[in-house]
From TrEMBL:
This is MFS transporter. Keywords: Cell membrane, Membrane, Transmembrane, Transmembrane helix, Transport. InterPro entries: MFS (IPR011701), MFS_dom (IPR020846), MFS_trans_sf (IPR036259), MFS_Transporters (IPR050171). It comes from the Bacteria. It is found in: Cell membrane. Residues 8-390 form the Major facilitator superfamily (MFS) profile domain.
Length: 456
């Protein structure tokens, strides 16, 4: 990576982390502290407030990404961060659960993840983009883990309003970072590997294998939000753990989940056992959710079920994007990820709202039975998933002034050893390939592209 690419990648990963920290910090404490608001004794409304962020995020995420193609990446990012900051201030100042619902919806209206991804694509060369995306993914995972540990202590010190004020301050820091740290791109264009295309949406939505994965991310995150809608209350009531000490429960189970996730992902990727590992993780998640529904009389059993949950969650969260990348049509990878992320955001709303209503009318067990049903259906759906080929996506720049025969170059690249799929996109000046993880003719690809570039 060049210094500019490294600066852009680290800066955007930091921007993502700051923004996600504000969202994740409320996960383990919201259900407890929302009870102090007027109307907070109505768990159905608490669930709506918890998930309202996801609804507006799902509605605006793809449109904001497409908007950034027209008006510029940074303008959309600034607008989204301002909306998120205003929503955070509203959440910090309200005294009723209805006001909290409005504030959370405003937070979600700052739907800038697609615009950030597009800006990253503008600022990095094709051959380094995967590494840059991995930095963002790593920052999100780290932020989630830190939030589970830090949030209970923070909530005890400054309360839920204080966390929302902190979120607003972090957002202002993010705005300054976009202004001062992140470079402005010399050229912005559409990137099929990183952005959603309206023209490709129908094909992606109809793709039977992608629909299985989209249901999967919906089920996983609906269950996540449902669990966090009630688990803090159960830790306090059944587990008799003060809210300030909830981190003592979350820290060990998150660490255990990470320890088991690493070898599972290595086996899945290196030995081409991705579907097998994926199915086992869903089954483990089903066991955890069923256990929570059937028998959770004390803190020990809560920790056991949470440990199994986080082992499964970490494996599934790490492997699903890889499955999307392997299965999605090469030219529609960005669109497939956009739909996937939208399903994830929608799940946040549906899971929280459903869990709040169920908890209000039937207690915790129906919430976990709902989660178990989502997992059972996911397990059934995933049995029909075609095992993906052991491939990875590679991108090559073909030159800004290239005017060759895209159809012929696509055919020539597709014929090379180890290349399973290829497409040349003249408007984007790239060749996108799906190649075997090892043994593909990288030198042949570069030679062929160089030859056609020189000929053009």
């Amino acid at each position: 990576m060049t210094p500019l690419e490294l600066r852009a990648s680290l800066g955007l990963a930091g921007l993502y982390a700051l923004r996600m920290l504000g969202m994740f910090l409320i996960l383990p404490v919201f259900a407890v502290y929302a009870a102090h608001l007027s109307g907070g004794d109505n768990h159905a409304l608490v669930g709506l407030a918890f998930g309202a962020y996801g609804l507006t995020q799902a509605l605006l995420q793809l449109p904001f990404g497409m908007w950034s193609d027209r008006v510029g990446r940074k303008k959309v990012i600034y607008f989204g961060l301002v909306m998120f900051a205003i929503g955070s201030l509203v959440c910090a100042s309200v005294t009723s659960i209805e006001g909290m619902i409005a504030g959370r919806a405003l937070q979600g209206a700052g739907a800038i993840s697609a615009a950030i991804t597009a800006l990253l694509a503008d600022l990095t060369r094709e051959e380094h983009r995967t590494k840059a995306m991995a930095m963002i993914g790593g920052s999100i995972a780290m932020t989630f883990a830190v939030s589970l540990v830090a949030a209970p202590k923070l909530a005890n010190w400054i309360g839920l309003p204080g966390i929302f004020l902190l979120t607003a301050c972090l957002t202002v820091a993010a705005i300054i970072g976009v202004w001062k740290v992140i470079p402005s791109p010399a050229l912005s264009r559409f990137h099929s590997d990183a952005e959603a295309s309206a023209a490709r949406l129908p094909a992606v939505l109809k793709h039977p294998q992608l629909r299985r994965l989209n249901y999967g991310v919906f089920a996983l995150h609906a269950a996540q939000m449902a669990m966090f809608t009630v688990m803090p209350l159960l830790l306090a009531s059944t587990g008799h753990v003060p809210v300030a000490n909830h981190w003592m429960v979350y820290l060990p189970v998150v660490v255990v989940g990470f320890i088991f996730m690493v070898p599972a992902v290595i086996v899945a990727e290196k030995r081409n056992k991705l579907k097998n590992v994926f199915l086992l993780a869903i089954a483990l998640m089903l066991v955890a959710q069923t256990g929570m529904a059937l028998y959770m009389p004390n803190l020990t059993l809560i920790c056991v079920w949470l440990g199994l949950y986080f082992i499964a969650f970490n494996i599934l969260e790490a492997t699903q994007p890889s499955l999307i990348s392997k299965i999605a049509p090469t030219a529609a990878k960005g669109t497939a990820m956009g739909v996937y992320n939208t399903c994830q955001s929608l799940a946040m709303f549906v899971g929280s709202a459903a869990a709040g209503w169920l908890f209000q009318h039937g207690g915790a067990a129906p919430v976990f039975w709902l989660c178990a049903a989502l997992m059972a259906l996911w397990l059934i759906v995933t049995f029909g998933l075609q095992p993906p080929l052991p491939v990875k996506t590679q991108m090559f720049h073909i030159g800004e002034n290239w005017h060759g025969d895209a159809t012929q170059l696509t055919a020539d690249l597709s014929a090379l050893s180890g290349v399973k799929e290829a497409v040349v996109l003249i408007d984007e000046r790239v060749a996108l390939l799906k190649v075997l993880q090892s043994g593909w003719d990288e030198a042949g690809v570069k030679t062929l592209i160089d030859a056609t570039r020189n000929a053009a």
